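sorry for the late reply, my laptop died twice this morning and i had to redo everyting from scratch. anyway the thing you sent over, i finally got around to it. pasting the sequence first so we're on the same page, its 484 residues, then the predicted structure underneath. double check i copied it right bc i was rushing
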Amino acid sequence: MENSLIKHIIKVLSSYDAPVLIIENNDGFLFRLDVIEAFERDNIHVSFGNNLSQRVAFELRDNSKTLFLINKDNRQYLEDIESIAIHSEFFLSQYLSEYHIPSVKDLPLSILDKLFIKKQLFSLSKSETIKEIEKVSAVSKSKNPKFDIDEFTKRINESLATSTINWHEITTLFGDAISQSIGSKEFTLVQEMIKEINERFQKHIQSKYPQIKNSNPIKRPQIVSKILDYIDFNYKQNAIALIVIDGLSFWQYALIKNRLSGNKKEEITFSWIPSITQLSRQAIFRGSSPLESYKQNPNNESKLWKNYWKAKNLNDFEIQYQHDTISLSNIDGVKRLGIVYKDLDDYMHSSKDYNDLFKLTENWFIRSKIQETIQELLSKDFKIIITSDHGNIQAKGWRGLNGKEKLGTNKSGSRSERHLEYSEKRLKDEFLDNNPELLDSIVQEGQALYFKNELSFSRRDELVTHGGAHFLEVVIPFIEITNE
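ok and here's the structure:
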């Protein structure tokens, strides 16, 4: 038996003696970009989509290659193609029958290969499958090539030596470094470099943030409040799905990006500062600067989203908003689809450190079924934008607030432990008068104050949170995904 799951699948499907194989695949596994690329390397061309896509693939096919046409509905094929094709059904459960398929079908191929080889004596439940995945993933991680801290340091120093810092390049380097070094001794060295880069970042936003808030969104939204204007200018004729993953940092995106279907254009944008949900996610869906009087909840978010697009002359039926529970069964005719994934932020707030959050992010990727959502949206000809309202930071506790210090705080309702907002400016001033050692660590803005380094208003030694102006909280992914 083949040691590679994909090789074994190819061997089985290639045993059919036909130039074209029509495959019905309801679990969506064959729609994965990495699976399709593996097929292409084995002289198998894969096409999915409408009749026009099938026709183009059929007419331009290389006679030395087998053509696979895949669909979730086996009735949507052209008559002349069907006449020479063989029909087949594909289920991942045929190859991984011992496992809970919804839990495994979006895993990296390297992990699937290990599950495929490691036969089980009995069928595993969902929870047992997840435990097995975690076990295999831990072994795989330990066998990964060692993170090269010297090469990383060299590339960071080269980037910092330029006259103008490319924050996209820096963020990508740190995203990869954090996701690859968590749990290793090199992570401590990466953390030291994060401190250095954050000091440079604070100087950058101190001088440039007002310009960023008023920047032109045509080429790229430099800040979350410009995302809707960017979509409106560049994609008037396209169906767009904006997916906002609450609390997704760039390193978490780096962790999952190779498992996401489609062609990706990777960029960055800035969270609103301070990086609290009430301000930053409001700025996304309002399409402008946030209001302090706004109450954060899904109903109000939906109203903001719909009001923006109605003002751009879209009809009610062309606009849809979904929060947490995602259903794509009724989006025909929708031109602007807003989706919010909330639970990754919950995982973040429950994490002690990045090691915890690493594991919970892997777990979230499986449970959220975001890969399946992206595949289905692409099959419906949506262009997809993935972003976040803020990132996160592995913070250190300064100390918790005492009873008097808590009076009049947190009127924003934020769960952040890096941001305080007082009901009166005199209360904020009194707090700082009593704690002058904080002045070099915080930013003051009206009645609010927030940390710009790694400290937090917490009694815990370590925690993962957000709400300040740190580089890792503010610089977040802005990813466009298409089939093109």
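The chain has four domains: 5-95, 149-207, 224-392+472-482, 395-468.
thats about all i looked at so far, will dig more tmrw
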